[in-house]
Design goal:
Distance between the termini: 19 Å
Number of helices: 12
Structural class: mainly alpha
Strand content: under 5%
Shape: globular
Radius of gyration: 19 Å
Largest sheet: none
Order of helices and strands: HHHHHHHHHHHH
Number of domains: 1
Length: about 260
């Protein structure tokens, strides 16, 4: 069910964000580079810079600036790190500070940090956290609270929630007066378009990985396909789908 919900979100966002061929190419490139272990932050903002440069190339040639771009941040060593509450808070604070785009981009950052880098979660636990975020009030970011509780109990839940939401409040307060001017700028506008396309590429790559971890047999694949049809064709509320998926899983436990 969760995989189907994410695919539906990708389809909807893609129709809005991939407005031309350049943006589609950037999204596909980010999708491919993610599997080559490039850092997700470098991919997100690197894609934005590429679109900015290509879109404004005539302006750049006219002004003849000296520009140097550096791409860094290949995948970190996959060595498990002992759990600690301060590191949990700092990790969510970092994610909240650099996250951009749809809430589903959060999946790329959560997987990169908590599954790959720290080794504190499995893919299945991450999917469970997304499911909880779908059925509880509020945005998908409430999955952070579930992850914090799963790893560190009540203290972990509170610190994870504070860390993921604190940067948003600060950034909104600071940037709100500037947003209309930023969007009207051809430079900043093209940068934001590129970051949007890159975020879709990241979401698609992580969805592929999570799908491989969760669609493990014929039954789960059928549930995902039916869910996707219900979402795209009949616009069924995702909460009802999650409940239906839980019921289907319970019934299938008697068959297997």
């Amino acid at each position: 069910m969760v995989i189907a919900i994410i695919i539906q979100a990708l389809w909807t966002l893609g129709n809005k964000a991939l407005k031309n061929r350049l943006l589609a190419i950037v999204g596909l490139a980010v999708f491919a580079l993610y599997f080559l272990k490039f850092n997700e932050i470098a991919l997100l903002f690197g894609g934005g810079l590429i679109v900015l440069l290509i879109t404004n190339w005539k302006r750049i040639r006219a002004s003849s600036p000296s520009i140097l771009l550096t791409f860094s941040g290949l995948g970190l060593a996959q060595v498990a790190i002992p759990f600690s509450l301060p590191l949990l808070f700092l990790t969510f604070l970092k994610i909240g500070a650099v996250l951009y785009g749809s809430g589903y981009v959060l999946l790329a950052f959560l997987r990169a940090d908590f599954v790959t880098r720290l080794g504190w979660l499995t893919d299945q636990q991450l999917i469970d956290a997304v499911a909880v975020g779908q059925v509880t009030p509020g945005p998908l970011f409430t999955a952070a609270t579930f992850i914090g509780y799963l790893l560190g109990g009540t203290s972990g839940a509170l610190l994870a929630t504070l860390g993921i939401f604190l940067p948003s409040f600060l950034f909104v307060a600071i940037s709100n007066p500037l947003i209309p001017k930023i969007r009207n700028s051809p430079w900043a506008g093209s940068l934001l378009d590129g970051v949007n396309a890159s975020s879709l590429g990241l979401m698609a790559a992580v969805t592929f990985q999570l799908g491989a971890a969760s669609l493990t047999d014929l039954y789960t694949s059928i549930i995902a396909v039916i869910s996707l049809i219900l979402l795209l064709r009949y616009k069924i509320n995702s909460t009802w789908l999650i409940a239906g998926g839980a019921l289907a899983g319970f019934l299938l436990s008697f068959i297997r």
